[in-house]
Structure formats: structure tokens, C-alpha cells
Specification:
Strand order of the largest sheet of chain A: 2-1-3-4-5-6
Number of helices of chain A: 10
Shape of chain A: elongated
Order of helices and strands of chain A: EHEHEHEHEHEHHHHH
Number of domains of chain A: 2
Structural class of chain A: alpha/beta
Strand content of chain A: 5-15%
Largest interface: A-B, 33 and 33 residues
Number of strands of chain A: 6
CATH topology of the largest domain in chain A: Rossmann fold
CATH architecture of the largest domain in chain A: 3-Layer(aba) Sandwich
Radius of gyration of chain A: 20 Å
Distance between the termini of chain A: 41 Å
Oligomer: homodimer
Largest sheet of chain A: 6 strands, parallel
Helix content of chain A: 40-55%
CATH superfamily of the largest domain in chain A: Response regulator
DNA sequence: TCTATAATGTGACAAATGTCATATTAAGTC
DNA sequence: GACTTAATATGACATTTGTCACATTATAGA
């Protein structure tokens, strides 16, 4: 009997998947959580064979949980299950040596199949994910520009951003100018819209 | 046998719920869709007893589908199933005379129970939804201010907004000034953040 | 009927934003 | 070793943004 742990913060999906997976006669859902902290501690305790982790959860993200599982060298196989085909998420997942990365835009069959393949020792990435990442506009922003853009998102003005990232006000404005030119926009909000659409931040 | 139609654009949840509901021996899932258009035409054709509708779907929103069902005076009972406890969504749902409004932050049992209650002729609104709406900050913005704020969101500058909403540039800036004061902010981005947090736009 | 409030406008002003030219230093690449 | 890019900075400038005072008209409520 394969022991499954499921971490997913949307209860409707959490309970639905727990029930469905439990119906498979070789799978046993030994626990579920709706936040990352609970998930991590229970996974450490209960040592499931497979952990299915949503990314965006309260307290600790599924990627953080995956990373901890990797660091602690647990034998638990990890499958990330998320809505987001975002390059930076995917990279983090690969860094954490996850065994699978599946989008919620797949039917449940696919999840069951992924579980089986992962148990077989395979590593499984959603084909749509790979397509989506390969076809995505490559992020042209530098690290610091991304830092600045994230501060912009919170609504800070130039001076506040400067304080937050330890730069001069002028430098921040230069970075913003550069962000605008790279995104082909002429205001902070437009730049944010473009960057979010392309999943650069 | 109660005929259920399910419209939900996230395939993982769509398939999971379809399977689960199908397991109930008095319920029969006669069709599913991942967009509003398909849902509406199939509902018109197949006349299910209950339609479960997600709100944010491609082509036609669940609220639009609900409204059409109401206008066409179909006997199909409608349950809105959504992530969003947003006052304006709820109001639209009430206007469309839906029979239930359930948040995805509920377990599947709740959905099954809601289906049964709706079939019994009851009208069911998620308690968390009601709480959330009652405890929500009431939107202090006027209609025109909301119009302007929506334009701000697209990244337009004052002149462009003025054109878009047929106002003078000065008036737009006055409205923005008023929006900022009502939201207690000092920039467009902050105002957007507050308005989105409070689900005013 | 009086009184808010919404919707709309103008003009003036200070502050913030965005652009540009220019510069230094460090790191990485051919 | 030359070249490019990133990271950082300054100063000057034009434009945009946000504030404020003030004004008109329409409408809804007490």
C-alpha cells in the first residue's frame, strides 16, 4: 500500500482529491493539510511514500516544503501540483529535486498516473508546463530590477524603494527607467502588468 | 435520479467533482464543461436539475450563465461555486436568483449537502460568504471613481483615462485625488492594492 | 424645500516620475 | 587584455501626478 500525503489549501480540491485517491486500491491517503507548516511536520513524522504539494499555501509554500524534504533527505517522493506554469517556480522545484510537477489544468487521471510513474522512479513534468515555459518571454530584467519592481508592486514611491533596497533615489529611478524601456511601457503600473503577465515577478 | 451539470474551468477540480458526485447513488452528472458558452448551450439542451457553476471561466462567466438561466426561466437550479467572496459577485448572483452560493473553501460534503438542500427548494449561501461580505469594508467609491480606478489598473495615464471615460484630464485627476483620500493612500498603485484587497474592483 | 452628494469642470502649484548624459567599479566572456 | 554587462551614482530637465480652492448642475433624501 502506497502512503500518500496531500497538501492543498483549497478545501474543495483537497477533500475531493483525498477521497478520489483513497478509492484507488493501492493508494492510501495517510494525511492532508491546508498549510505548508502542518504538511512539513506531518510528512517528517509519517514518512509517506509520495507527497502531493500545492505551491501557494499559507505559512510555508509547497516549494519550501519540497526543499526541506530534499535537505532532510527524506525518501518521500514529491509531486508539485499547481495552477502556475511559472518559470521561477519550476526552477525552484527542479532545484529541490522534485519527482513530478503537474498543473491543475490536468484531469485527476493524470495525477494518479503521475503518482504511479513517480513511484516507478520516473521524473514527470507536465508537457503543457514545459511548452509554456519554453514559449514564455524570457525575463529581460536584472536581479536588481526585479527587486525594484517587487517594491513598486507594494505601492512604494521612489524614495521608499530606495530605502528598502539600499540604493539612492536616483539609482532607483534609473532602474525604473530601464524597466520601462525593457517592458516597452511608460509607467509603473503598465510595467507591473507586463511583468505579471509574463510571470517575471 | 437527479441530473447534475458541472461547469468548472480547472480540469483537476472539474474531473474530481464529476467523479465524486457520480458516486452518490441519487446523482447523475450528465455533463461537464470548462467554459461558460459550452455550459450554457448544454444546459439549455439537456435541462439538468442542478447546474454547478464556477464564476471565472473563459468566454462566459458563471454569473452570465446563471443570468441566462434565469432569463430563459429554465427549471434548472443553480449553485455558484467559487473562490471569491466578493460582494459584487454575490449581488449579481442574487439578482440572477441563484439557489446556492458556495465557496471552494468548503469540503466536498458541503457541496453534496448544498445540492440536496437546493433540490429541497431551499436557498443556500455559504455562511463564510455572508460573514465575509458583512465584515468587508463597504466600498466608499462612487460609480465614476470605480470607472476611473479600473482604467488606472490597465496602466493608463490621466489623459488616456480622460479619453476612455469621456472626462477632462482635470476631472480625472480630481477623481483620483478623491480615490486616494478615500483609500487613505498616496499613489495609484497603493490605491489599486487597497481596492483589490477589499474587492472593490 | 433645504441639503447632501455625485458628477463635472478650471487654474495653480508642489512633488514625484521618467529621461538622458555621464561616470565608476566589478565580474564575466571571447 | 579587450569588451560587455550589471550595479551604482549624480545632475538637469520635462512631464505627470496629486492637492487645493472654487464653481456649476442634477438628483436623491429628510
Amino acid at each position: 500500500m502506497t502512503k500518500i500525503y496531500l497538501a492543498e489549501d483549497q478545501k474543495m480540491l483537497n477533500t475531493a482529491l483525498a477521497t478520489l485517491l483513497g478509492l484507488e486500491d493501492d493508494l492510501d491517503v495517510i494525511g492532508t493539510a491546508t498549510d505548508g507548516n502542518t504538511a512539513l511536520s506531518e510528512i517528517v513524522l509519517k514518512k509517506p511514500d509520495v507527497a502531493i504539494l500545492d505551491i501557494e499555501m499559507p505559512k510555508l509554500s509547497g516549494l519550501d516544503v519540497a526543499q526541506q524534504i530534499d535537505v532532510l533527505k527524506l525518501t518521500t517522493k514529491v509531486i508539485i501540483l499547481t495552477t502556475f506554469a511559472k518559470a521561477s517556480y519550476f526552477e525552484q522545484a527542479v532545484d529541490a529535486h522534485v519527482n513530478g510537477y503537474l498543473l491543475k489544468d490536468n484531469p485527476t487521471d493524470q495525477l494518479v498516473q503521475t503518482i504511479r510513474e513517480v513511484l516507478d522512479g520516473k521524473t514527470v513534468f507536465s508537457p503543457e508546463l514545459v511548452t509554456s515555459i519554453l514559449s514564455a518571454e524570457k525575463n529581460p530584467l536584472t536581479k536588481r530590477e526585479i527587486d525594484v519592481l517587487k517594491e513598486i508592486k507594494t505601492g512604494k514611491n521612489s524614495k521608499e524603494i530606495a530605502k528598502a533596497v539600499f540604493l539612492s533615489d536616483g539609482t532607483v529611478r534609473n532602474y525604473i527607467s530601464s524597466i520601462l524601456s525593457k517592458t516597452g511601457t511608460s509607467s509603473r503600473i503598465e510595467a507591473l502588468n507586463i511583468a505579471e503577465k509574463n510571470k517575471w515577478i
